[in-house]
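tokens incoming
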């Protein structure tokens, strides 16, 4: 059985940058500059993630997962949900033209 989300289809999933910006980083007591340095990424990359201009890549997810002890999967799932939500809306007209096939 496919995994069904309880989220309303019109409600955009939270971007991982939102969680980092609003909850995770403030809870550490560290500055964004400190977090970027400890992650080994540029300040600009971190700022772009926090402002939701950039997504969390697998490489960054591995770093975040190590730093916060939750593994990369949680960060990638959040990013994947955002990406799929955006693409589903941006490709809506194109997707409507694709037929649904069933096994014979």
């Amino acid at each position: 059985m496919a995994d069904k989300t309880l989220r309303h289809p019109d409600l955009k999933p939270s971007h991982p940058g939102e969680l980092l910006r609003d909850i995770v980083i403030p809870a550490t007591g560290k500055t964004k500059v400190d977090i970027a340095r400890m992650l080994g990424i540029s300040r600009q990359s971190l700022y772009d993630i926090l402002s939701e201009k950039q997504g969390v890549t697998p490489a960054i997810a591995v770093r975040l997962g190590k730093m916060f002890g939750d593994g990369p999967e949680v960060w990638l799932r959040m990013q994947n949900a955002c990406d799929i939500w955006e693409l589903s809306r941006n490709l809506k007209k194109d997707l409507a033209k694709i037929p649904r096939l069933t096994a014979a």
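note: The two ends are 20 Å apart (CA to CA).
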